[in-house]
Amino acid sequence: MQKAIPLAGQQRADHLLIAEMVTPASRVLDVGCGDGALLKLLAETKSVDGRGVELSREKVNLCVKSGLSVIQGDADRDLADYPDRAFDFAVLSLTIQATREPKTVLENLLRIGKHAIVSFPNFGHWSIRAALLFTGRMPITPNLPEPWYATADAHLCTIKDFVDLVSLVDAEVEDAVAFNSHGKRLPIKNSLSLQNLLGEKAVFKLKRRS
Amino acid sequence: MGATSALPEGQDQIAGKTNDTHRSEALSPSSPVVVFPDDAPLKLESGQVISPLTIAYQTYGTLNAAKSNAILLCHALTGDQYAASVHPVTGKPGWWEALVGPGKPVDTDRFFIICPNILGGCMGSTGPVSVNPKTGKPYGLDFPVITIGDMVDAQVRLIDHLGIGELFSVIGGSMGGMQVLEWAARQKKRVATAIPIAAAPWHSAQNIAFHEVGRQAVMADPEWRGGNYYEAGVVPKNGLAVARMAAHITYLSEKALQGKFGRNLQDRAARSFSFDADFRVESYLRHQGSTFVDRFDANSYLYITRAMDYFDLEAAHGKLANAFVGTGTQFCVVSFTSDWLYPTRDSKAIVNALNAVAANVSFVEIESDKGHDAFLLEEPEFHATVRGFLNAAAEKRGLDRPGGLA
Questions:
Q1: In sequence order, what DSSP letters do the residues of B93-110 get, joined into one string?
Q2: The whole model's pTM is what?
Q3: Residue B309 domain-assigned?
Q4: What is the pLDDT of residues A49-73, one digit of tens each?
Q5: Which one of B333, B384, B396 has the shortest CB-CB distance to A65?
Q6: Could you say which architecture CATH assigns to the domain A7-208?
Q7: Residue B9's pLDDT is what?
Q8: Does the annotation count B80 as an active-site position?
Q9: Chain-wide mean pLDDT for chain B?
């Protein structure tokens, strides 16, 4: 299910931000690369050597047909096969909440990449809090459109929860940006609590604490 | 002929005739050949040598001035060099005309395609039907047991002879895919891209078992004569036909067999209460068996199946990933959902090993109900994958588009 992400031009806002965080000509692994939009953006704007992993057979075929290096695989199962520091950046874009073991996946990302970039929908956003408070039911939003029994997003978290996980896996935040529902970046001077309230999605750049 | 014979009645005359054509193709093929003389023997994994060595091959397209557009096609167990041209014995189109030709996924307007007959084959390259220089007679069982690696080393000779340093791509399905993997492991600097299709990094117990059934069928045929049937002017065709029939079942999916034949009867309204080919599937298999013996050498079948059984890239390198350490090759691994002979998990083992050495690898599993043979058939998704992968890699390397600017 394609999430309704605000677009800036033809590109997803989180993709553009990830592209800003990635060093030119670096090696990038995009886990959950979908139709390869981010890999193409990174190849065109940053000349990266990109690889992808994607669960859906149709999307993998689409990627390979268009010349991207993508394998059919599962973030939970297949990341273990990659060697340490094989990539400069390991990217997980709006996928961590759909993994079976987000902590293990994050640890693998931090092991495989010198940096990890993770974006996720923020379950602490005010609209979700309000929906739960006033309806007493699991929120259904443009960003989280499936009912609880049908969604693949089994491990939703808030920005604050994610920050806790980052310290639990002994990583540090190098950069973090939240977007509001219009795709606008929230000023970096905002407090974590405010970002957690106003941010609909967040992008974190992480590295292992050495 | 007995009612249980693999050969339909009345086929003897035709089979005999065609077999002469087949043997003459083995000894002096229609395709070009290169002969490596005695002073350059091919050393085999077994420690034995083959000398002189003849490699018969066919090419399609034109080699560019930089010699940078060459693709090596590796054929499967019963394939040959006639990938995209008429087979000189059967008169049938090439085995990969679906993929190889002008404007096709492996585009002969853009690439120079080399397809050699494998070492041990029977369409002109040195094999058990060739003349043993020590005796002046066909090798028969004096031919040394060969491996997939030996086949690749023989192909390396051909590529050297053609003056090609780096191959733009090495492509093959099934046993051809095993050769692709050996090329990637043995010739890391000479393989820019590689497409192993419906392949495996080792031959499974089940695959060895099926091959053993085939070999025993050949050897149980009295006309096999311990492998010395050439001089007697006979062919162990019943045995070889049974081997082909058993193997053919493994190339198809259960669903494809059921869908194509079901329990339908062949040219009759009711059961005959005999051992005739009552069922269409029986008739089909008998036909597959009888046409196969017209174009293939029984001893070649023994040697090539043995080479496949011996294939185990992991055992050869301690760990499968070690086979690919330091590779710069860009891989595109392809499997098919209904292939139970070389199932997707075998292709995934290749992919995992490549990931473990941070190789550049794509992996696609194609949805198909055609079984292992899907790689030879009309499969638009598969063809689009091969086309896209090759074109993107060619673009990256600055290879001309057909009819494009230099």
A1: PPTTTTTEETTSSEETTT
A2: 0.90
A3: yes
A4: 999 999 998 899 899 988 899 999 8
A5: B384
A6: 3-Layer(aba) Sandwich (3.40)
A7: 38
A8: no
A9: 92
